[in-house]
């Protein structure tokens, strides 16, 4: 059994309207939300063994803050340029290339692609994954290359402003 966390980057700054989108940093709320959400995930006894992120500044910082909470160094984060504005096919490809020694991975990316992707995976549908939203699922496979065709089960969906996370029944 493999598990995946799909995480939209935390809230980013729009303070400089001339800044290139790729370079936008997290704003103050994003810097607080990311470690808080990582702690909520960790408090569920969820382990993350590998972190795979878009290299965009806001996604990188979100991944770094999650890795810190899970007591992993930045060297544990793999940056994949294709996760910047990824479509569902790209998400599948990135997951299928994950190291089989990792039973649980976290993917950090952007909307709208992350919302499109989570809505393909299980019966649970999300209107929009909000900033720092976390969608978790398990896949009945032993190798990541089999993820696409594996039976998947929704585990939970949580985000910073949620009063109660949505969990599998």
Brief sketch in words of this structure:
The chain is 27% helix and 21% strand. With 169 residues, the chain is an alpha/beta fold.
What are the main properties of this structure?
169 residues, alpha/beta, seven-stranded mixed beta sheet, 4 helices, globular
Describe the structure.
By secondary structure, the chain is α/β, with parallel strands linked by helices. It has one domain: Rossmann fold. Strands 3-2-4-1-5-6-7 form a seven-stranded mixed beta sheet, with helices on both faces. A hairpin with a 7-residue loop joins strand 6 and strand 7. Helix 1 packs parallel to helix 2. The longest helix is centred in the N-terminal third of the chain and has 15 residues. The chain is globular and about 45 Å long. The mean pLDDT is 95.
Helix and strand arrangement:
Blueprint: E1 2-8, H1 28-42, E2 50-53, H2 57-69, E3 77-79, H3 88-96, E4 104-109, H4 113-121, E5 134-139, E6 152-158, E7 166-167
Parallel strand pairs: 1-4, 2-3, 2-4
Antiparallel strand pairs: 1-5, 5-6, 6-7
Q: Give a short account of the largest sheet.
A: 7 strands, mixed
Rg, Å, rounded = 15 Å
What ranges have pLDDT less than 50 throughout 5 or more consecutive residues?
Answer: none
Specify the CATH homologous superfamily: Phosphoglycerate mutase-like
Question: What characteristic shape results from the CA principal axes?
Answer: globular
Helical fraction: 25-40%
Category from helices, strands and their pairing: alpha/beta
- Ends: how far apart? 19 Å
> How much of the residues is beta strand, in percent?
15-25%
CATH architecture descriptor: 3-Layer(aba) Sandwich
What is the name of the CATH class? Alpha Beta
Average pLDDT number: 95
| Tally of contiguous helical segments | 4
CATH topology: Rossmann fold
Looking across the biggest beta sheet, what order are the strands in? 3-2-4-1-5-6-7
Number of strands: 7
User: Any idea how many domains?
Assistant: 1
**Helix and strand sequence:** EHEHEHEHEEE
């Amino acid at each position: 059994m493999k598990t995946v966390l799909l995480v939209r980057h935390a809230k980013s700054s729009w303070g400089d309207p001339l800044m290139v989108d790729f370079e936008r940093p997290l704003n103050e709320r994003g810097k607080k939300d990311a470690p808080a959400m990582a702690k909520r995930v960790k408090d569920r006894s969820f382990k993350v063994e590998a972190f795979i992120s878009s290299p965009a500044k806001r996604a990188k910082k979100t991944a770094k803050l999650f890795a810190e909470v899970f007591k992993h160094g930045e060297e544990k984060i793999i940056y994949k340029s294709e996760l910047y504005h990824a479509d569902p096919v790209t998400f599948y490809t990135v997951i299928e290339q994950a190291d089989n020694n990792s039973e649980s991975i976290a993917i950090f990316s952007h909307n709208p692609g992350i919302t499109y992707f989570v809505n393909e995976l299980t019966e649970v549908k999300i209107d929009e994954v909000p900033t720092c939203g976390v969608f978790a699922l398990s896949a009945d496979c032993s190798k990541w290359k089999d993820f696409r065709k594996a039976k998947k089960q929704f585990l939970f969906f949580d985000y910073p402003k949620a009063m109660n996370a949505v969990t599998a029944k």
